[in-house]
Amino acid sequence: MKTIADLISEHKFFGELDQESLEFVAGCGSNVHFAPQERILTEGEAANTFYMIRSGSVALSFFVPGRGAVVIDTLGDGDAVGWSWLFPPYRWQFDAEAREDVAAIAFDGACLRTKCDSDARLGYLLTQRFARVILERLQSVRMRMLDVYGAGAPR
Amino acid sequence: MSTALAHPADTRVTDAMVPAPYRVTSRVQETADTVTFTLVPLAQPIAPPLSGQFNMLCAFGVGEVPISISAIETGDRLRHTVRAVGAISQALCASEIGAVIGVRGPFGTDWGVTSAMGRDVLVVAGGIGLAPLRPVVHELLHNRRQFRRVTLLVGARTPEEIPFRGEVASWEASARITVRTTVDTATPAWKGEVGVVPKLIERVAIDPEFTTVMICGPEIMLRFTAAEVLSRGIAAEQVRVSMERNMQCGIGRCGHCQFGPVLVCTHGPVFPWSRVGPLLTRREL
Amino acid sequence: MARTPAHTDHHPVVIDRSGLQELIDALIADGRTVIGPTVRDGAVVYEEIATVEELPAGWGDEQAPGQYRLQRRSDDALFGYVVGPDSWKRYLFPPVSVTWRAEQNGDGVAITPAPEPPRYAFLGVRACELAAIAIQDRVLVHAAYPDRDYAARREDALFIAVNCSTPAATCFCTSMGTGPRVRAGHDLSLTELLDGPGPRFLVEVGSENGAALVEKLTANHASPADREAAAAVWSAAEAGVTKTMPADGIRSLLSRNLEHPRWDTVAARCLACANCTMVCPTCFCADFREAGGLSPQESEQHRTWASCFAVDHSYIHGGSMRMSGRSRYRQWMTHKLATWHDQFGTSGCVGCGRCIAWCPVGIDITEEAAAIRATDGLTRNPTGAAR
């Protein structure tokens, strides 16, 4: 039976953390499962937990009055869900929902935040990894803004 | 019915700019702006095209455009999928059953599917780019045991704009190849992925030494997709892309399709990334 | 009628002005349209001629970047000028031509290819022009899909070449290895000798067809003095070519300087008027467009000269691949001097200098090449300044 530390060291998001940081982070983590259509995050609520998906598909969406839930991104194996736990006002910016059975590791964001305040190195390592996630998601959104598949879209 | 030359006794080789008349025998509206046609020759047929090759299709009185074949047909039939993006393609898409269209070809380089036998094949299609890759998928399915793992990744603007949507779903359901589809913008009923195609590649298990990649889609999508597969260790020679340029002759004479040192109609449209990758980083080449 | 090279035992002969008329008459009698130089609208252009009187007797030209003027010579030389705005591509690859006609009838479409072209004889062809025709042959004839019309015009034509006597300041044929002396591709080549009361022409045979023509003329065997006089013309012409463009390494020079700031400098001057592509004897880009006939059932495909300087030359749905003037000038020059090699195995430039003279702002391709060569490797930094 794998420990959280084992799972984290295999997870692509964390890969190559030093042992001490790994063990600390693992101490803030626990195994969780979500059933299909189960809500994971809700826009506006306190962002104190974030998730690393081990398996399963998660949809990020906005609830738009008159249109309902509009899915703007889908995440899967190996993806991090939620970064608002790291930045004030620590509130979720969107909804996230499991689209099928999802196995994930949940992390106590509040606990990690406190530790990062005192351990600058851990803070740097985590921020570095989240910054990369944000960069990739931003690039994806920019690409979609270009509407490259549209007829008459500039190349 | 007549395709008479002015001088029937003329024994000189007919210039390759003269089209052969074909008749539309079937017409399928794939999406709002995309139609698939079956064409049969009225007189002399052209040579059978290979997947990746294109024909110059002529809407008489309007003009000619290069269109890749979207399926390999038996006999002398041709199958083309046309997207209405300009005056000529619009005229072609408006053609009804029985209409006569001019055909010249086949021209250009092919995908070289047989050279990927014994290897994993990763097919990545963006938007209407699935049309030139569709005969590749047919070939892979037809000879499934000659290839190792086969994966098809499809990106589209919205779920309604996925070309050959029903066929893609049936490929996925057949479980003979792995199929993943993603859209830029979802609709409420969409249960698939949302995001860009390179993201789908992240989740494909790749054995870099034994993988051949074939990519077709808008040029930006080609670049980012190629970058993603190269970062996974696949050699540039094993990544093939199909390019598009203004073509008015298809035979290396009009000069419009020049792309630095290459003529896309003659040296392409299918190129190994090793040939065109460095050129694609040059703006406005 | 493919050109059979002449046997080496055809001795040069000398003809005079009336012999030249005999030559023209023989060509016309052979059912040919004779195209030769004549003065029109202040330039020497190539038109259909029938008499020696129509040739530009006593005219020379003065050419410079952005400048072309006819000048009266002090003698009556018939060929005392060099190339003007026309090149022989005007007849071998006409500016507008019909490739086929289509007529939709009840059951299908009847397609009629273009009619047979006329049979030509070209009088006054210069060495650089023969080189240009050879270059176009590689593009349009020695290709996977030969241009039937070009091949027919070109293979059936007769070429009466002329050795230049008075190069222009814009000529750089010596740098490109194409002249001024006529060496190949001709049926006959003439050297004008102005050492007597009227012009005389040393005639050298270049092919068996040329030899057959000479048989019909009133000619004298060329004397050693005649040959010396001709040789003097040839060496004076070679010495008279002053403009140079060092051709070695130019292909890789341009290929590795695609981001050189010089492209911005020249783009600021270039009007993208396409004059250079129209006067260039090797430019072959063409549009193939459909035109409707009088009835809805009729249509024609037209081939017309096109230019890479046009914004829509590279248009595909969504926009043009070469929008900026900079990219279009770079396309023209790098194609002409560098990527032509990749596509056709030779340079695309023959050093005729037309693009220099006929550019309204006087852009000089040799100057642009020299500027890049002098600052090889320069690139623009992000703020736009050269570094």
Compact overview of the structure:
Chain B has six helices and 15 strands. Chain B is of the alpha/beta class and 285 residues long.
- Proportion in helices of chain C: 25-40%
Question: CATH top level of chain A?
Answer: Mainly Beta
The CATH superfamily of chain A bears the name: Jelly Rolls
**Secondary-structure element order of chain A, N to C:** HHEEEEEEEEHH
How would a textbook summarize the main sheet of chain A?
Answer: 4 strands, antiparallel
The CATH architecture of chain A comes to Sandwich
Q: Which oligomeric state applies?
A: heterotrimer
| Global shape of chain A | globular
Rg over alpha carbons of chain C: 23 Å
- Tell me the β content of chain A: 25-35%
| Total strands of chain C | 16
What does this structure look like?
- The complex is a heterotrimer of chains A (155), B (285) and C (387).
- With 155 residues, chain A is of the alpha+beta class.
- Chain A has helices spanning 4-10, 19-27, 109-118, 120-145, and strands at 29-34, 39-41, 49-55, 58-64, 68-75, 80-81, 95-98, 102-108.
- In chain A, strand 4 and strand 5 (68-75) form a beta hairpin.
- Chain B has two domains: 17-107, Elongation Factor Tu (Ef-tu), domain 3 (Beta Barrel), CATH 2.40.30.10; 113-280, Nucleotide-binding domain of ferredoxin-NADP reductase (FNR) module (Rossmann fold).
- By secondary structure, chain B is α/β, with parallel strands linked by helices.
- Chain C has 13 helices and 16 strands.
- The model of chain C has no long low-confidence stretch (mean pLDDT 94).
- Chains in contact: A-B, A-C, B-C.
- The interface between A and B is medium-sized, with 26 and 32 residues.
